[in-house]
Write a structure and sequence with these properties.
By secondary structure, the protein is of the alpha+beta class. The strands form 8 sheets. Strands 3, 7, 8, 9, 10, 11, 12, 20 and 23 form a 9-stranded mixed β-sheet that branches. Helix 1 (about 20-30) crosses helix 12 (about 445-455), helix 2 runs antiparallel to helix 6 and helix 2 crosses helix 12. The longest helix is centred in the first third of the chain and has 21 residues, at about 165-185. The chain binds one RNA strand of 77 nucleotides through strand 8, strand 20, strand 23, helix 12 and helix 14.
RNA sequence: CGGGGUAUAGCGCAGUCUGGUAGCGCACUUGCUUUGGGAGCAAGGUGUCGGGGGUUCGAAUCCCUCUACCCCGACCA
């Protein structure tokens, strides 16, 4: 592509709206422009990257035996009523009416449509297993779209749905998809990690998320470098520490004026926070409240808490008024002793003796408190988020934490949708069988942003070669003043294109500095600089985006050199 | 939806407190010079000051209202 023929509106300054680096660079590199909150236009350069990601995803899905389909973006409300999600999905579902006032939605996902297709078209177990996918625009009316492409409302997603006669077949395809995702993210040139994930509201048994590792990621991943265990923080189990020591002290009440936080308690009473306990009250399902007890140095994991049937969903903290109603004290002075509501205690908090807690009386704390003696043995559950250094749940080492961007998610759905929509086939024995389903998503447009989050420097984007919009930036210096150089540059441009290399030919009559800066900002992996000086010596300058120095290479060897470099980078 | 903030030229911003008819940098246009890391000089164009209403002789500036966008919390690819 000749740069003079391309819309590439690079920006020297960062638009004020951008917060995260991928958003800033996508705007500055002239790849996207915002139309409205969470809605972006893909400009030519950005679209090339999106298409490359798409192509790799498509190739690998095809290789895995999945069949591509394309379903409507707009879906009739009836299907969503059938699955029960018209009511459940909430405000994120963009609802529409046509001219006859019939209800539709803009699909945020396609379980209903694909299951409808499956019940219409799949009749016999002989047609199973089957795996269908599409690459399509979704819309989720996010409460707060942000971070540019990272959390847009409209986004491009690859979603796949598999259908099976039984669970064994589902597990088999699930594993194939797991392996396929691993291939995809490897080919994309991204550092990633597959982690066990919460199945959440979608239901089903097993689930894995694929995260691109980046410090700016919104998700926290717990992993064990020794055993390979990796899980979303919401799923990573915190193991019980050892046996609880025997009580050595008697319980006593102390006056602690103005002490309302754990850190204040540790200072006031000179105890480590690991010997204190905090008690959080949340709304319960029965109209009362539920107490959640954690060690002072630990944090509540809200996802884990929300899994308790006694806890109202969504998880809601009791208001200060409610806290006073049930405990007679300020939220800062609540403790588990004498509480007249269900008490759930985290494993770690249940394993300490002689601890400090609120006295359920303003400005008083209790010391030397012991479970089973001063208050009933609590119901012990896993409530806290793991922290770095915790034992791995598989018992084979210690956990570390890192941050990631969720770019893929695979689920075993089971029969949730097939049962609701009555998607059945006739089995071998002639009886109807409700199909088992799996579903497998990849955030295609999010990958573009995630790749930038992971690969950038102060000069701009550094694309992995596999998804770079162009592989080579060809920059002739002062070409417009040298016919000889123009001819040589065009010759090399044609030659590179002839061997299938994607070249961005900067034929603009600009100063070299501008061309260099643009090529680096948009992140082209390889740069070839040509000049009259170089022609005299029969050389061009070559350097990769990550290099700080270029080197002269013979003009007649540059094509082979680039071919090899690109091939190595993509294999 | 709750909390915080912003809206002035294509982009980044000043001007708003204290009302007097809009400015800076970059970008853009033309010319000359320059030409290996975002050139210099000269000339030039650019605005419903987010919308509506009000106060005032006069509003970017004060008041009311609406809207859009951004940031912090719950959702998710």
């Amino acid at each position: 592509m000749r740069l003079s023929q391309m819309l590439l509106p690079t920006l020297r300054e960062t638009p004020a709206e951008a917060e995260v680096v991928s958003h800033k660079l996508l705007l500055r590199a002239g790849m996207i422009r915002k139309l409205a909150a969470g809605l972006y236009t893909w400009l030519p350069l950005g679209l090339r990257v999106l298409r490359k990601v798409e192509a790799i995803v498509r190739q690998e899905m095809d290789r895995a035996g999945a069949q591509e389909v394309l379903m409507p973006a707009i879906q009739p409300a009836e299907l969503w009523h059938e699955s029960g999600r018209w009511e459940k999905y909430g405000a994120e579902l963009l609802r529409l009416q046509d001219r006859h006032q019939r209800a539709f939605c803009f699909g945020p996902t396609h379980e209903e449509v694909i299951t409808d297709l499956a019940r219409m078209e799949l009749h016999s177990y002989r047609q199973l297993p089957a795996n269908f996918y599409q690459i399509q625009t979704k819309f989720r009316d996010e409460i707060r779209p942000r971070f540019g492409l990272m959390r847009a409302r409209e986004f491009l997603m690859k979603d796949a749905y598999s259908f099976h006669l039984n669970e064994a077949s589902l597990m088999e395809t699930y594993q194939v998809m797991y392996d396929t995702y691993t291939r995809i993210f490897t080919r994309l040139g991204l550092q990633f990690r597959a982690v066990r994930a919460d199945t959440g509201s979608i239901g089903g048994s097993a689930s894995h998320e694929f995260h691109v590792l980046a410090d700016s990621g919104e998700d926290v991943i717990a992993f064990c470098p020794d055993s390979g265990y990796a899980a979303n923080l919401d799923l990573a189990e915190s193991l019980a520490p050892g046996e609880r020591p025997a009580p050595t002290r008697n319980m006593g009440e102390v006056y602690t004026p103005g002490v309302r936080t754990i850190s204040a308690v540790t200072i006031c009473l000179l105890v480590p926070s690991s010997r204190t306990v905090k008690t959080l009250l949340v709304e319960g399902t029965d109209g009362g409240v539920v107490a959640l007890v954690l060690r002072g140095d630990h944090d509540l994991n809200e996802t884990k808490a929300a899994r308790l049937t006694e806890v109202a969903s969504p998880l809601t903290f009791a208001s200060p008024e409610r806290v006073r109603e049930f405990t007679g004290a300020d939220p800062g002075s609540v403790g588990p002793v004498g509480l007249q509501c269900p008490v759930f205690c985290d494993r770690a908090a249940a394993a300490i003796a002689d601890f400090v807690c609120g006295a359920n009386r303003d400005n008083f704390h209790l010391t030397g408190v012991n479970w089973g003696r001063d208050l009933p043995e609590p119901r012990v559950v896993d409530l806290r988020s793991v922290v770095a250094g915790d034992l791995s749940p598989d018992g084979k080492g210690k956990l570390a934490l890192c941050r990631g961007i969720e770019v893929g998610h695979i689920f075993q759905l089971g029969t949730k949708y097939s049962a609701a929509l009555k998607a059945e086939v006739v089995g071998e024995d002639g009886r109807p069988v409700t199909m088992e389903m799996g579903c497998y998503g990849i955030g295609v447009s999010r990958i573009v942003a995630a790749a930038i989050e992971q690969n950038n420097d102060e000069r701009g984007i550094i694309w992995p070669v596999a998804i770079a919009p162009f592989q080579v930036a060809l920059i002739p210096i002062n070409m417009h003043r040298s016919i000889r150089l123009t001819e040589a540059a065009v010759r090399l441009y044609d030659e590179l294109r002839g061997v299938g290399i994607e070249v961005l030919f900067d034929d603009r009559a600009l100063r070299p500095g501008v061309m260099f800066t643009d090529a680096e900002l948009v992140g082209i992996p390889y740069r070839v600089v040509m000049s009259d000086r170089g022609l005299d010596a029969g050389t061009v300058e070559y350097r990769t985006r990550r290099d700080t120095q270029s080197r002269d290479v013979p003009l007649d060897g540059i094509v082979a050199l680039l071919r090899e470099a690109i091939q190595n980078a993509c294999s």
